[in-house]
């Protein structure tokens, strides 16, 4: 049966994981305020949800057609290196990091002993046994403690150095992102493809340092994520790139609807410690080369892959009209209105497609694309359809064939 999580309630898609009354800030918080952003609590941070002069739909569509800059400095950045680092990370993750090429990135997950997801993460390999990792803001303390605990119990872990660091982290997303970023660096970004990274100078900004930039993001559009630990340079870059008429600052509202259209998971919604990658429809995270290996939760996860019928629920897409489905809405069978068959993980109106989209955990045999279901919204059962994801095809920048 599907798993339900208990989460704090703000706006339906804003989930703070910190109970601390004092919100943390990023290097850009005061700049967001000067840009007339509406600030909200998110994962223990004060974050911009929307900027004055932009509606949610306008912000969303701007990223799809131009370039949007997201402050993602609340995410936790890690460096981990030393002998046996690759084998250590492959104990925590189901992904083949051994064969990952230097300066290539992959999405992965940190797994507990039962195969549940501690957190999802972006892992970039810089060299053999040297990695840069970005994890979620809401899981900061949990992730650090988890890695520390796993490292203390790892026999070959004595030479591994793990550190976290703060600084500016910006996601620059949209079809005009390369043009916008290229104005500040002499590095040719045209041969940096999706899933690749490098260190680039922001020399046209007057800085002699080099900063890590990765091609990718959380919107389904072309784009970059750039890490700038030097706060002064980070703030200067943020303000300078906004001078470009094709670039606007974008907040959490559009970030959520963009990732939903791209069919991407959000931790605490589609991912949690009770749900395996297989149940979350992320089988591809378990590399084929690792399907006879041991890693956290491998017994359960590999068994689910070998015997798909044993997986009673999984993550699917849903589409509907009328009031939008939201996190926690119950899902019932269309042929038996008393039979609950699932729960909505997240949902939103789709600015690109019209109507509503969402992601849900749904039981067998109601997971097939095209299956009609009923969602309980505001005390009424409303029709919806199981749909394939992504809802909007990604536009990642890849080499031409």
UniProtKB/TrEMBL annotation:
GO terms for cellular component: glycine cleavage complex; mitochondrion. Its EC number is 2.1.2.10. GO terms for molecular function: aminomethyltransferase activity; transaminase activity. It is found in: Mitochondrion. GO terms for biological process: glycine catabolic process. It catalyses: N(6)-[(R)-S(8)-aminomethyldihydrolipoyl]-L-lysyl-[protein] + (6S)-5,6,7,8-tetrahydrofolate = N(6)-[(R)-dihydrolipoyl]-L-lysyl-[protein] + (6R)-5,10-methylene-5,6,7,8-tetrahydrofolate + NH4(+). Residues 314-392 form the Aminomethyltransferase C-terminal domain. Keywords: Aminotransferase, Mitochondrion, Transferase, Transit peptide. Substrate binds at residue 225. The keyword Transport does not apply. It is an enzyme of class 2 (transferase). Residues 29-288 form the GCVT N-terminal domain. The glycine cleavage system catalyzes the degradation of glycine. Belongs to the GcvT family. The glycine cleavage system is composed of four proteins: P, T, L and H. This is Aminomethyltransferase. It comes from Ogataea philodendri.
């Amino acid at each position: 049966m599907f798993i339900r999580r208990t989460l704090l309630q703000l706006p339906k898609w804003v989930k703070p994981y910190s109970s601390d009354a004092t919100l943390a800030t990023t290097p850009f918080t005061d700049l967001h305020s000067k840009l007339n952003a509406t600030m909200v609590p998110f994962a223990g941070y004060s974050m911009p949800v929307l900027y004055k002069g932009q509606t949610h739909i306008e912000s969303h569509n701007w990223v799809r057609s131009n370039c949007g800059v997201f402050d993602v400095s609340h995410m936790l950045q890690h460096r981990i290196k030393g002998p046996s680092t690759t084998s250590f990370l492959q104990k925590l993750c189901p992904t083949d990091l051994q064969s990952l090429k230097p300066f290539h990135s992959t999405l992965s997950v940190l797994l507990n002993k039962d195969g549940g997801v501690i957190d999802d993460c972006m892992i970039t390999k810089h060299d053999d046994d040297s990695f840069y990792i970005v994890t979620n803001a809401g899981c900061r303390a949990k992730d650090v403690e988890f890695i520390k605990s796993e490292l203390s119990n790892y026999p070959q872990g004595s030479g591994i150095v793990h550190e976290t660091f703060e600084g500016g982290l910006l996601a620059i997303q949209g079809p005009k992102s390369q043009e916008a970023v290229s104005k500040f660096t002499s590095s040719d970004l045209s041969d940096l493809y999706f899933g690749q990274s490098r260190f680039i100078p922001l020399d046209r900004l007057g800085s002699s340092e080099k900063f890590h930039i990765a091609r990718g993001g959380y919107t389904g559009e072309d784009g970059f994520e750039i890490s700038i630990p030097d706060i002064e340079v980070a703030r200067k870059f943020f303000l300078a790139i906004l001078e470009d008429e094709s670039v606007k600052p974008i907040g959490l509202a559009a970030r959520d609807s963009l990732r939903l259209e791209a069919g991407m998971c959000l931790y605490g919604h589609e991912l949690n410690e009770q749900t395996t990658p297989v149940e979350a429809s992320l089988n591809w995270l378990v590399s084929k080369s690792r399907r006879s290996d041991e890693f956290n939760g491998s017994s359960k996860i590999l068994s689910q892959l070998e015997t798909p019928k044993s997986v009673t629920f999984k993550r699917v897409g849903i589409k509907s009209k009328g009031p939008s489905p939201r996190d926690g809405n119950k899902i019932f069978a269309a042929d038996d209105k008393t039979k609950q068959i699932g729960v909505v993980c997240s949902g939103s109106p789709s600015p690109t497609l019209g109507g509503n989209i969402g992601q849900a955990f749904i039981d067998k045999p109601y997971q097939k694309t095209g299956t009609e279901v009923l969602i309980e919204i505001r005390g009424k059962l409303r029709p919806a359809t199981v749909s394939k994801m992504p809802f909007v095809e990604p536009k990642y920048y890849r080499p031409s064939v």
